[in-house]
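Revision sheet: structure tokens.
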Amino acid sequence: MIQRNETSTAALLDWLDGLLGSYQPAFDVQQVIAPRVGAHQRDSHAEFVFWTPELLEQRVPAGDVFLECLEPQTPPDLARARQQASFKRTRIPMERAEAYSFVCVDGLTAGSRDQIGTFYRLVWRDTAGDWHQILDPMAWSLPYGAFAPAEFYDIASLQHDRADTEYWQAQNTAEVVKLGPPVNIQQIHVPTATAGGTLASLATLYNRLAEKVRAGLPLEPSERLFAGYDAVQLLPVEPTTVYEAGPGFWQEEEDGDLLQVDLTRPDTTNWGYDVVIAGMATVNPCLLETGRPDELVDFACALHNFPRPKRLILDVVFGHSDNQGTDVLNSNWFAGPNMYGQNMNYKNPTVRALMLELQRRKVNFGADGVRVDGAQDFKWWDAEAETLRHDDEYLQSMADIVQDVAGTKYRPWFIFEDGRPWPQEDWELSSTYRAVIDGQRDEDVFQWGPLTFAHNTPFLYGFWPSKWWRIREILNHGSNWISGCANHDTLRRGTQVDTKLNVNTRLGQTRMEILDKAYDNPAIQLVTYAAFPGVPMDFLNASARASWGFIRNQDDKYGVKVVAEEAISLKWQVDEYSYSLPQSFPRLKAMGFETRDSLARFMEFLPALVEVTDYDLNVIAKLLAEVDPMLDGPRPLTVQVLKEIARAWMDDMHEYCNVARHHSLLSETQTEFNHQLRDFRRARPWLRDNLGDRDRFDYQRPVNGTVLFSSLRHGPDGEQVFMVAHMEGGPTEEFDPLRMPIQGLEGFGWQVALRTTPIGDDFIGGPLSLHDSMGLVYTRQL
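Predicted:
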């Protein structure tokens, strides 16, 4: 029987009253309370604490506030696309202490890997007798997303049963361990990383790869994509926005004491950054094959139990909330609108404490590192000075959180993406990319470096000479930067570049070949791994030469506008052959865009009309319908049909970007070269350091139409690493790299360590001519 536990509820009331009535600073008090907010298993009972200032603001009496427990009559199958389910409803009166509503309850079912738990939410009654709900933003499990009741979950058992305990115990070398940086990182978007598109399928991939590595078996090109990395950084795995126009994943009707619920398995597609803050402590159900948050722990274990353990880095988004967040969080969480949706109210002590607690809970799934998205967006309004200020104290608080996994207390390694003074117009010139590095106490805090940020286009002529000043900064200050040109943001921006610009046609015969090679370029990889300091990062979709873009199918109001902005990617990433494949773009083909040309023609008109009509969908639909000759596609062309086309584009592009679709096209030589390059860097961890007095990095002068980079690095053990790379331009005349006029290069003993294609394995030295994207690495032991 589900019933209130009076003794435990009274004890909780005394505890809260004592804290809230103390003279301690408000933030200190809220930090003590925050770990108990949400739902927790406490011995034989369940404890529920909600922060509900809106009930005080609306003067809702405590007697009208209840915890609503929803016990499934038959446990729903979380693997089914859609089903009907009945839930027995029990309402338990809650207590209140200032802005907190709480109660302790006996008789609930705790969810686990093997069973579905009781669902719950807070409900309150107004003076008209109507019921309203408040969902739990601190939940451990949200099988139907952040906009549906949460599941009461046994998080302690999830942690107790994890399979990487030995890994964590091996880290336990101090009272609080501080984890440092890995050698390199692979960035992965879970839904497009495998055919299954879930954390479970990704964990299976790593477990199978581990078996082959242990057995010493040769790897396929598709397997080498994932091999040789010390860390995996997942794009955000938090719950994101839902369909603006519905339907919801949880739709209910009352039936006496029962709720009849139409349940839909969450199926939104999103690149991960459209968060609503609520639910940040758990996992986006769209990424879960089983609907169980245990899959994130399983993935962490797959990495940690690899023959050479890999680290897990979680990408967290606390700098903003999508506007949909206002539908699930009270107004005290927000500080006003911004370009992404809503600013967070960092100066509110409860909001500040709860957001830090959400982070702590999430990282406790077993992450070794944290990447903070958009750190320049953490701001607060200084009313006295009438200006916005960066909340660097909050960023420091994020890095100070102590995690506890398998008995090991530790502070994770931290990366901050911080481009301040972005969005100031001259940010690309004025950003130092060192604001957080210089401002925090830890020596191993990292930021994204200048070549890792969005607006990098290595497929345009003149890119490398134009970035020379930034390259000099990397060489001198890059030891605490993430390096590399290919990530989720740079590749997306690359596909939005005007194709009429001065494109480097030496990279390939088609735009697809040019884009693919630009972001999986042997010469760039040589410079990143064999010359630049810092920690290199590669993006899986770029390494696989798969497509990528702004993937989000939830928009109703602005969905057509988003697709119009993405339309140019059709020129960069889709040719006639790839479009013609039966598995490609099935929804758009069914709508009448049977060929790429027919879709491309439609997409030529759409962006122009979005701009000239100031995004008036009625006018856009009317003008598109009147184009002569007639555009292909559905008829009649209405606003609703435009929205359906936009949704079809997003869903088809999401499938088209899946890396598994590109396995058959992978290059044996390129994947092997990249793998060897990662092994080369791992064997020389000293390359992470800034260039020393004896080190050299320069480009050939005069340029004479060829950007030729050269680097000479000196290791602490007496090893020298010499690299030469052709970045862009015409072919060089035949020359011997070891005869270049570089101080320290003189003498004998050099051996070729790495060769890009088409340089063969039979090349062991001597003169040669380098073409675009070619390069060599030599080593010598003094």
